[in-house]
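Quick illustration, no need to memorize.
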Amino acid sequence: ILFKYSDTQFQTSGTNFFGQFWCEATGAVNVAQELSGMADINMEQVYEWDPDIIYITNFSSYMPEDLYNNAALEGHDWSGVSAVENGKVYKYPLGMYRWYPPSSDSALCLWFMAKMNYPELFEDIDLEQTVKDYYKEFYGIDLTDEQVNGIFNPVREAAAGV
């Protein structure tokens, strides 16, 4: 999980932080589990871990295409990382609040990560409809397809500090 990724910070989630919970709850292995809390990392560590999936939080303005196109930070070559090579870099959705930290949309984050981690096990789950149903039941809001698309594709400018 790229928790904070910018020209001044490069952090992931170790144990005792949200990312560890999300990974464990959705059956994934957090490659940074030997670290603790908000952990500073570098590209050499990423190369060593070679993650199969990368999630980018909304605390970073970078998007999956920045990693795919190697257009992120100068000197950070993402091209050989398995998640990038296999097209498995995801931006956390952004609904009522960021889905990465605990929020009113946390239940949806579990569905999202489970489906991204194990698409074959959750192929019968329609995430867009799940979000619509959730917002209707808990917020009394009938989301449009465009609004759901916005949740799953947050704009770069929605990142913290941008």
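The chain has a mean pLDDT of 95.
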